[in-house]
Amino acid sequence: PTKKLSERWLGPFPILKKVSTHAYHLKLPSQWKSIHPVFHISLLEPVKTSTIPNRYQEPPPPIIIEEEEEWEVSQILDSKLKRGKLWYLV
Length: 90
Hints:
The protein has strands at residues 15-20, 23-26, 38-40, 63-65, 68-70, 78-82, 85-89. It is mostly beta strands. It has one domain (15-89). It has a three-stranded antiparallel sheet with strand order 1-2-3, with no helix packed on it. Strands 4-5 form a two-stranded antiparallel ribbon. Strands 6-7 form a two-stranded antiparallel ribbon. The protein is extended. Residues 2-47 form the Tf2-1-like SH3-like domain. It comes from Austropuccinia psidii MF-1. Pfam families: SH3_Tf2-1. This is Tf2-1-like SH3-like domain-containing protein.
């Protein structure tokens, strides 16, 4: 997939409440606790469902927290100790 054709938006996220005429409070994932959950309407987009059946939806990009990428781990398959540091196979 190319960057040009990939999704520009993350989500969808449920709206918890309307804060003002131009801002909404969203329910963000718990791992995004460093991101303020209130967004201006110019940063929000209605959900668009695909009209193409079985269309591949690219997974969301990695989460950047404190300038480091973070990935959600679905399962730890193995681990080993190397030079005093624990390494995981996920």
